[in-house]
Specification:
6-stranded mixed sheet; alpha/beta; disordered C terminus; 19 helices; Rossmann fold; 45% helix
């Protein structure tokens, strides 16, 4: 299995190279040359199997020769041994044909743990094997940073630098990043939005001398391994609901488009997915794009679902690449137009291809709170704001097609957003035992301006890479 850039100006790479690089040198995102297919009998056999079994079957074709079968199995079992639910990603029914796939039973209470715990082990394995060091740089709108820090903290061959938008994440999200004492972990509070943080990270990766000096590696969902790991739980949910003999839809709270893109690949591999619903908050660039064909950035509005407060959804580029029949020149032209004017128009044929499998639904602040209130009143189930957006969009999908089950992805534990939950339900969900002291720990906050040069200097001064200079 080899991987190529969506922009077509970088060489094909192996899984290991894509894992360590994150972003292609031409600024594009890596995609697999081929999508492996799962037979109907294989999908049917997933029913009742442990999560690790399904993950191994899904990931093995993508990793190729990167890991032997015993090593891959060890990495997978280690990644999910610490999850607080034996099913890892349990499926919960809310109503007739309405389900929640709970993805927040990992150490940092967010769906990012499902991929990040495995990604950390994979990177540590290949770096240790080669005697190499890496400098991980990532941007977060709230959950990716905490998941990355937990996965990589304390490792001797990895330094971690996470950028987050100052004042635009919840207290719990911030403290999960800023209270860890490990010397290889650094958080930078950027005076800007998540899109600003993401733009800085991309600028650092495109500064090739800096990238090479510090062996930069990315762990955002721009890293293909993150997407591959997330495909697994779509198959797990599908098996519970009767795949391959029964079709289903998924409603996905969406910011950077990585989680719903994993569903797209699950469908391409053989899972009988009917519709993928892109559920957005008020920062609705994806909903507007799917409705009008115009991808146009607007100012980011802070909301009670901060992990979705994003305008530039990086992984949408991967979908565009497939919708444009793998035409890297077309994708490159669209991305250049976005950089120059803040907008582009999706070609008609590509838009038709996207609409064939995707729907979208915008959920504003009032509707988000109303869904949290309704679900708690009717079922006693407490939703975080992001999951509530997925549930609200799932209900809209069921109104269109009540006979096809819809699975809303539960992306975060409600205790990460206690103020929003309290406003909607009158309840303050408690943090799990392993995080009870979180609010008492001392924070380490490094506030920086929205300037790539300042961030680059900060990283050079603190990286443990041999030869790094201030």
């Amino acid at each position: 299995m080899h991987y190529r850039s969506t922009r077509g100006e970088d060489r094909a790479v192996t899984f290991t190279e894509a894992l360590l690089a994150g972003l292609a040198r031409d600024g594009g995102l890596y995609v697999p040359d081929d999508v492996p297919s799962m037979s109907a009998s294989t999908v049917a056999a997933f029913a009742g199997r442990p999560f690790a079994d399904v993950a191994e079957a899904v990931l093995a074709p993508f990793t190729g020769e990167a890991f032997t079968k015993p090593v891959l199995r060890r990495l997978i079992e280690g990644a999910y041994a610490g999850f607080r639910h034996p099913a890892v990603t349990p499926l919960v029914q809310l109503d007739t044909n309405l389900f929640i796939l709970e993805l927040f039973h990992g150490p940092t209470l967010a769906f990012k743990d499902v991929a990040m715990q495995l990604l950390g082990r994979m990177m540590d394995e290949v770096l240790s094997r080669a005697g190499r060091h890496a400098t991980i740089v990532g941007a977060t709108s709230g959950d990716t940073g905490a998941a990355a820090i937990d996965a990589f903290r304390g490792l001797g061959q990895v330094d971690v630098f996470i950028l987050y938008p100052h004042g635009r994440v919840s207290d719990v999200q911030r403290r999960q990043m800023t209270t860890l004492p490990d010397v290889n972990v650094h958080t930078l509070a950027v005076d800007g939005t998540f899109d600003d943080c993401q733009a800085i990270v991309k600028a650092l990766f495109n500064h090739h001398a800096f990238r090479d000096d510090l062996a930069l590696s990315g762990v955002n969902s721009i890293n293909w391994a993150r997407i591959a790991a997330q495909i697994s739980y779509y198959f797990v949910a599908g098996a519970v609901l009767g795949a391959p003999h029964r079709k289903m839809s998924f409603s996905v709270p969406t910011g950077n488009f990585g989680d719903v893109l994993a569903g797209y690949y699950a469908k391409a591999m053989g899972l009988p997915v009917d519709r993928l619903v892109v559920a957005t908050n008020q920062n609705d660039i994806l909903d507007r794009c799917l409705r009008t064909g115009v991808y146009e950035t607007q100012g980011v509005q802070p909301t009670q679902s901060p992990s979705m407060d994003i305008q530039v959804s990086s992984n949408f580029e991967r979908l565009l690449f497939k919708a444009c029949d793998d035409d890297s020149a077309a994708v490159r032209a669209l991305m250049n137009t976005l950089t120059q004017s803040g907008r582009f128009t999706v070609p008609d044929a590509a838009l038709e291809a996207i609409r064939a499998g995707f729907d979208s639904h915008r959920v504003d602040e009032a509707a988000t709170q109303a869904e949290m209130t309704r679900t708690f009143r009717e079922t006693g189930h407490i939703l975080d704001p992001h999951t509530a957006i997925g549930v609200a969009a799932a209900r809209a999908a069921l109104r269109r097609d009540p006979d096809t089950p819809v699975v809303a992805l539960g992306t975060a534990h409600p205790a990460k957003f206690p103020d929003a939950v309290f406003r909607a339900t009158g309840k303050r969900p408690a943090l799990p035992d392993h995080l009870l002291q979180l609010m008492e720990h001392r924070e380490r906050i490094n506030r920086v301006p929205n300037e790539p040069s300042t961030v680059e200097r900060f990283i050079r001064e603190r990286s443990r890479m041999l030869g790094a200079v201030a």
